[in-house]
Amino acid sequence: MIAHWKVVRYLQGERREVMDEVAEEKSxxxxxxxxLLATLxxxxxxxxxxxxxxxxxxxxxxxxxEVVQIEVRAGEIRVSCCPGRVSYPSAPSSPLQVDPGELFxxxxxxxxxxxxxxxGGVHVGLWGRGGEVIFRTSDTGRxxxxxxxxxxxxxxxxxxxxxxxxxxxxxSRGVIEKVARLGTRxxxxxxxxxxxxxELASEQGITVVGFVRRGRFNIYTHPERVAF
Length: 228
Fold this sequence. Notes:
It is found in: Cytoplasm. Helix content is 28%, strand content 36%. By secondary structure, it is α/β, with parallel strands linked by helices. The protein has two domains: 26-81, Ubiquitin-like (UB roll); 100-225, Cytidine Deaminase, domain 2 (3-Layer(aba) Sandwich), CATH 3.40.140.10. The protein has a six-stranded mixed beta sheet, sandwiched between helices. The longest helix has 15 residues, at 142-156.
């Protein structure tokens, strides 16, 4: 998932030509039963999770069993499915509660993503429970990361309301919309939220924890899920 690119580097007043590592990004057309649904620019990895999550968030499917086949060809992802009726019921209130140590552990795990540490060119997301990472993924697109997390949860039959979602990027309204649709109750990030994201999180009963770093964090909404 890494490409190499020749760069001219300025370092302490000196000019150098070196090979640098960059995140590999490819363009894929998603063809749903032969018709173009979308074109995604993404890492060429974990494409099945990406497609399942994208279909679910787009309202095309409500269960992975509705997808009959996913076939990856050069620049194309062909999907055959038999979709049912999609609805997004409100997630039930979750008894989920975490302590500060769990939050710090999950954010540290975001930083440990090898592709991010080598290139700095991807967003990272994860599912966590009890301070342990269940699944971690990365992509050049922030929404792609959330789609991959969704696809993983769908295929494994996990309940997002019982998990913590860790995300490396800022928590905008668009990000929180996907989080809310999943029924996730707690999202944590080393980055900042936006006012639109916080307004939606407050309305939907989602705990937002931001600026998690060096022994500190801010709880912006529904602080009752963080015990200290």
